Amino acid sequence: MLRNVSVTKNFPEAEVTEHLRSVFLNKEVLAAVGLQEAELRFQKLLTCLSHPPSYTCVRASTHLAPLEDIRLRLVEELKKQKWISSAEQPSVHVSPHPRITDVLLLPVDGPRPVEQLSSEVVVGAQCGSAVLRGAHVFAPGIIASPKYMKAGDMVSVFSDLEGRCTRGATSFQGNKVFVGNGVAEMDRSAIFATETPARGVGVQMVDPLYQSPSFDGVLPSLVFLQNLPSVVVGHVLAPRPGEWILDMCAAPGGKTCHIAALMGDKGEVVALDRIQNKINRIRQNAQMLSLQSIRAYCFNSTQAVSDEPKQEAEGPPFPPESFDRVLLDAPCSGLGQRPNMASTWSLKEICSYPPLQRKLFQAAVRLLKKGGVLVYSTCTVTLAENEEQVAWALNTFPCLTLQPQEPHIGAEGMLGAGLSPEQLRLLQRFSPELSWDQIETTAPLPFRADRDTIGFFIAKFLKT
């Protein structure tokens, strides 16, 4: 059975849709595949971005236990979860990835035939996207609810696509999409009529449109929810024990912790981010995963290079050519995230990222030792933030050369930035739209996992 593809990603700003169309229908693409195929790919992109991948990816803490031991423990934990109804076969299929040695894959069941109820709860778009990936509805995400909603009431949950629902409303007729049914865990008054913001689960999802397990509190030291391309980044960086490695935009720390784990926690991983709360989150994750080699600092990475002689302080800024490897997982427009049925970005906001990315890139090159490796990645689909940045970097820094990536499970780079076929083959662009309507949901999970990802981009450079 091919999945339902009726929902399409919504951009309130028409100019954003037209901008993306111009990206995917650029002259190089049109010359290679023609107008009809290019337009079809763009429409598939808009459609697949509104749906979650057909699986959940977790990164296993193989620095703490063997993968098979973690897999068996996870199966036992998930059997206890109520997301498997008594009418279904009480077994959970957890599959290792055939090429990535610390990844486990779990199937997502959906879209399912769920009947909408008359009682409606409206949540924000971010909350709605989380529900589609297995989360319950936490109270801060609730925007509107029935006037007399009580704990124990069955409700349908809708996601507000354009952010136009008024907080505390009793109904909403705007642009919204159904994400499933659940049981209210709080009265309406406990959510809206309080001086302090309500916390905890507001609606327990019992009949979601996409059914997948919640990982809240499940083996927190052994499994870490992470999109597959984000795990690939760590392996492409290929850190080695004893190295000094910089993660320039590190929050919330998933990739930072993965790098430390791949090094066997031997060496040092310096994690930088501009926001203190996010630095605290990195430290919490490192502690939870028993990683001692991470040093996290609240610092602006564009200013991370020192022109002064080496100071006694161990933190940033750092002298040039300090690091063996640098990961620049750059701030980006995030247009590859799935599911994301709505985007409130303006075209001006989307176009604001490339200049910042280039400032970070310049710092990264200066901080990298000769013979060192720089990996650049984003979770977006635009040329300006991906292939065009690679072309700019190769022209700006003659010391950089593109390198092969291992594993390389995504597609090659996209046409449109003037890169050669050889250069495009060295890039890794995860493009779910290329096989969106060809992947049968009955196909083996490892087979479809590499194709059914978020939109993501990776480039690997060597500094000579």
Automatic annotation (TrEMBL):
<dbReference type="InterPro" id="IPR018314">
    <property type="entry name" value="RsmB/NOL1/NOP2-like_CS"/>
</dbReference>
<keyword id="KW-0808">Transferase</keyword>
<keyword id="KW-0949">S-adenosyl-L-methionine</keyword>
<feature type="binding site">
    <location>
        <position position="273"/>
    </location>
    <ligand>
        <name>S-adenosyl-L-methionine</name>
    </ligand>
</feature>
<comment type="similarity">
    <text>Belongs to the class I-like SAM-binding methyltransferase superfamily. RsmB/NOP family.</text>
</comment>
<feature type="active site" description="Nucleophile">
    <location>
        <position position="379"/>
    </location>
</feature>
<dbReference type="InterPro" id="IPR023267">
    <property type="entry name" value="RCMT"/>
</dbReference>
<dbReference type="InterPro" id="IPR036974">
    <property type="entry name" value="PUA_sf"/>
</dbReference>
<dbReference type="InterPro" id="IPR049560">
    <property type="entry name" value="MeTrfase_RsmB-F_NOP2_cat"/>
</dbReference>
<dbReference type="GO" id="GO:0003723">
    <property type="term" value="F:RNA binding"/>
</dbReference>
<keyword id="KW-0694">RNA-binding</keyword>
<dbReference type="InterPro" id="IPR015947">
    <property type="entry name" value="PUA-like_sf"/>
</dbReference>
<dbReference type="GO" id="GO:0008173">
    <property type="term" value="F:RNA methyltransferase activity"/>
</dbReference>
<dbReference type="InterPro" id="IPR001678">
    <property type="entry name" value="MeTrfase_RsmB-F_NOP2_dom"/>
</dbReference>
<keyword id="KW-0489">Methyltransferase</keyword>
<dbReference type="Pfam" id="PF01189">
    <property type="entry name" value="Methyltr_RsmB-F"/>
</dbReference>
<protein>
    <recommendedName>
        <fullName>SAM-dependent MTase RsmB/NOP-type domain-containing protein</fullName>
    </recommendedName>
</protein>
<feature type="binding site">
    <location>
        <begin position="249"/>
        <end position="255"/>
    </location>
    <ligand>
        <name>S-adenosyl-L-methionine</name>
    </ligand>
</feature>
<feature type="binding site">
    <location>
        <position position="329"/>
    </location>
    <ligand>
        <name>S-adenosyl-L-methionine</name>
    </ligand>
</feature>
<feature type="domain" description="SAM-dependent MTase RsmB/NOP-type">
    <location>
        <begin position="148"/>
        <end position="464"/>
    </location>
</feature>
<dbReference type="InterPro" id="IPR029063">
    <property type="entry name" value="SAM-dependent_MTases_sf"/>
</dbReference>
<dbReference type="GO" id="GO:0001510">
    <property type="term" value="P:RNA methylation"/>
</dbReference>
